[in-house]
């Protein structure tokens, strides 16, 4: 097949073609058509780009504007989703061209970082994204939650599973303290609240002194020819230990009908501190990926740990700008950072954009990047760079 095609926004009736390519690429049932079209209409903020040969759509992707928290500050983030290419158009650069266009649009729109859940690590790594953290699902015995020790608090109450402003505010108060949590924009909340309309969807909240201090959204799925059912946690938030204990004990109360609970992997750090034993096991796992779109913008938007100060000059290469490398003087002081253009004569550390992206979000260390051949520099400069970007293990809160 000829490699000639052009990339432009997907609009109007072309979303019908987008659905067809998505259906073939991901094995999506035709019965999902109306739901997909409804989602497109409900999320006008999301931008879709398509690769076309004349009027035929060869592949497409969507960019979801949102934010991502780093040390308590929301960094403008573009979530890359629904990346699809027709089987006969694979291998001619369609996905790469789409990603290149997405990066250009994000940079022009003030979006400084991007995250995604990959079907192929290689394809996105070659375009500058790099592994940042774990995503997926845990399986945990339901009875383990029922035996969590400690003082519970608050009043448990059912909430409208399609969401509310109060639920959004509860998440907004919680998310800045979670490394790499998504600062949910309207399209992200549409995705969550649409799930609340599904059969078997429930939402319960904890109210303490009149304020919502936590909630758990979950879905029950019946097991054919059995009196049991599956229970999947779709979203869980707790502002404090007492609220968390109340929520998880409530889930543990389903043990008569549910042998194991499916829990999102991002909840593992908190769940591990509550359970008496290491009962949570990996059920499904993939690694999400992250990319810096605009180095000065990403450094300026994020937070830094209290007491961290210093500077280092880096040379950054980007596969979407082959044959070029850019020097940046990265400086941090009093919780804020800057990245200013630097003369290549003063370079102390050299690395690619994917390596810098993974380091900045907490997905890699300077030692691991050096050992992988992704970072070079003298020991002192490398140590300073690692010190500036010391970040807790990231745990992205959303699939998209």
Short description:
With 400 residues, the protein is α+β, with helices and mostly antiparallel strands.
What would you say this structure looks like, in words?
With 400 residues, the protein is an alpha+beta fold. The protein has three domains: 123 residues, Gcn5-related N-acetyltransferase (GNAT) (Aminopeptidase), CATH 3.40.630; 150 residues, Aminopeptidase (3-Layer(aba) Sandwich), CATH 3.40.630.30; 95 residues, 2-Layer Sandwich (Nonspecific Lipid-transfer Protein, Chain A), CATH 3.30.1050.10. Helices cover 30% and strands 35% of the residues. It has 13 helices and 18 strands. Strands 1, 2, 3, 4, 5, 6, 7, 8, 9, 10, 11, 12 and 13 form a 13-stranded mixed β-sheet that branches. The chain starts with 5 loop residues before the first strand and ends in a 12-residue tail after the last helix. The mean pLDDT is 95.
Shape: globular
Look at the structure and give the mean pLDDT: 95
The level 1 CATH classification of the largest domain is Alpha Beta
- Major beta sheet, specifics? 13 strands, mixed
Q: Give the CATH superfamily of the largest domain.
A: Gcn5-related N-acetyltransferase (GNAT)
Number of strands: 18
The end-to-end distance, rounded to whole angstroms, is 31 Å
Query: What is the C-alpha radius of gyration, as a whole number of Å?
Result: 22 Å
Number of domains as seen in the coordinates: 3
Total of DSSP H or I helical runs spanning 4+ residues? 13
Overall CATH architecture of the largest domain = 3-Layer(aba) Sandwich
CATH T-level topology of the largest domain = Aminopeptidase
Q: How much strand?
A: 25-35%
The computed structural class is: alpha+beta
Low-pLDDT windows of residues:
none
């Amino acid at each position: 097949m000829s490699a000639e095609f052009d990339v432009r926004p997907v609009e109007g009736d072309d979303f019908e073609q987008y659905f067809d390519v998505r259906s073939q690429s991901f094995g999506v049932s035709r019965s999902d058509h109306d739901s997909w079209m409804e989602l497109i209409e409900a999320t006008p903020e999301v931008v879709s780009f398509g690769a076309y040969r004349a009027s035929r759509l060869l592949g497409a992707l969507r960019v979801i504007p949102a934010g991502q928290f780093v040390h308590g500050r929301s960094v403008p983030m573009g979530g890359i989703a629904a990346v699809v290419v027709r089987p006969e158009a694979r291998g001619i650069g369609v996905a790469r061209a789409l990603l290149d266009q997405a990066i250009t649009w994000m940079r022009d729109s003030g979006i400084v970082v991007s995250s995604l859940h990959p079907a192929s690590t290689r394809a996105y790594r070659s375009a500058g994204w790099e592994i940042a953290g774990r995503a997926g699902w845990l399986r945990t015995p339901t009875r383990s939650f029922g035996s969590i020790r400690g003082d519970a608090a608050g009043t448990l109450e059912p909430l409208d599973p399609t969401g509310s402003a109060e639920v959004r505010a509860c998440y907004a108060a919680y998310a800045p303290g979670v490394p790499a949590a998504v600062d949910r924009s309207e399209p992200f909340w549409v995705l969550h609240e649409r799930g609340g309309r599904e059969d078997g969807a429930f939402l319960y909240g904890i109210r303490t002194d009149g304020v919502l201090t936590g909630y758990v959204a979950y879905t029950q799925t019946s097991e054919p020819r059995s009196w049991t059912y599956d229970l999947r946690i779709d979203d869980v938030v707790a502002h404090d230990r007492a609220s968390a204990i109340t929520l998880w004990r409530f889930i543990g109360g389903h043990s008569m009908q549910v042998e194991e609970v499916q829990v999102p992997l991002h909840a593992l750090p908190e769940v591990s501190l509550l359970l008496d034993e290491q009962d949570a096991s990996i059920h499904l796992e993939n690694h999400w990926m992250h990319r810096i779109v605009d180095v000065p913008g990403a450094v300026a938007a994020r937070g830094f740990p209290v007491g961290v100060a210093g500077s280092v000059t880096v040379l950054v290469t980007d596969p979407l700008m082959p044959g070029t490398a850019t020097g940046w003087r990265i400086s941090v002081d009093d919780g804020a950072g800057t990245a200013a253009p630097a003369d290549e004569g003063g370079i102390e550390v050299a690395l690619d954009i994917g390596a810098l992206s993974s380091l900045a979000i907490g997905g890699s260390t300077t030692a691991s990047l050096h050992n992988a051949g992704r970072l070079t520099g003298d020991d002192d400069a490398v140590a300073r760079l690692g010190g500036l970007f010391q970040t807790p293990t990231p745990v992205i809160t959303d699939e998209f």
